[in-house]
Design brief:
Elements: H1 14-20, E1 28-29, E2 32-35, E3 47-48, E4 62-69, E5 74-77, E6 82-84, E7 93-99, H2 106-118, H3 123-127, E8 129-135, H4 143-151, E9 158-161, H5 164-173, E10 182-183, E11 189-193, E12 197-200, E13 205-210, H6 216-227
Parallel strand pairs: 7-8, 8-9
Antiparallel strand pairs: 1-3, 2-11, 4-13, 5-6, 5-9, 7-12, 10-11, 12-13
Helix pairs in contact: 2-6
């Protein structure tokens, strides 16, 4: 069974700093590389979070130093239809995650945790919450592949794919660094990607981020609060 690299704290580098200046973040979130076979990868860039508590009282997630706008992202959903991320977001909580279906560790764990959290909230909160998974490996993650994978967690999860350059630009605009998939000599693949979940409120702004390993109970606790978060 393939083994991925655990998330680790990484010093902020020039590359990460330039990507994050625009979004004004302030503390380090660990990133890691995942391999889908063979030896595991290493590397990744840092994402900066933290700062003033603008997400509302009692939120257990990590508060962003300044709100981040939901990217104006137009991709393709798992039914092959165009999907406008911003058009689907008003009045809802959008939990945005970039990853890939062949990921051996953090991606399936995160999706499973989010699915479990949605079973612990009221039907109203669940109905107003969207989990959006955007692939960082679009060459292999076709719409049917993503749909089959997401259905193993929750059939209501949204899966999106498109051009890698478009996905990469959107990810970096919200402080999530991605690296193009790399095939190794032994045939395995390494896909570096940020491992955080960004929580966008009904106003399409994120004030809270969740790192890998966030307890299910923390997601469930925060979702009703996130629905009430505003500027």
């Amino acid at each position: 069974m393939p083994v991925g690299v655990p998330l680790r704290l990484i010093p902020r580098g020039a590359r990460a700093a330039s990507a994050l200046t625009a979004v004004g973040l302030a503390a380090t979130v660990a990133l890691g590389a995942c391999s889908s076979g063979g030896s595991a990868g290493t590397g990744g860039a840092a994402v900066i979070v933290g700062g003033a508590a603008t997400a509302g009282p009692g939120v257990r997630g990590t508060t962003l130093g300044a709100p981040i706008d939901l990217p104006d992202l137009h991709l393709t959903d798992t039914a092959g239809r165009p999907y406008d991320l911003r058009a689907h977001a008003p009045g809802r909580v959008t939990l945005l995650f970039f990853g890939y279906t062949h990921c051996p560790d953090v991606c399936p764990t995160t999706m499973a945790d989010l699915a479990a959290a949605l079973t612990q909230v009221s039907s109203d909160v669940r109905r107003q919450t969207s989990v959006v998974f955007v692939t960082s490996d679009p060459q292999r993650d076709t719409p049917p592949v993503i749909r089959h994978w997401l259905d193993s967690f929750d059939s209501g999860f949204v899966g999106l794919t498109g051009e890698l350059t478009t996905i990469d630009a959107a990810a970096r605009s919200v402080g999530v660094p991605l690296e193009p998939p790399r095939r190794q000599a032994d045939g395995s693949w390494i896909v570096d990607h940020g491992a955080q979940v960004l929580a966008f409120g009904p106003d399409r702004r994120a004030r809270t981020v969740y790192t890998a390993g966030t307890p299910v109970a923390d997601y469930a606790h925060d979702l009703p609060l996130l629905l009430r978060s505003t500027a």
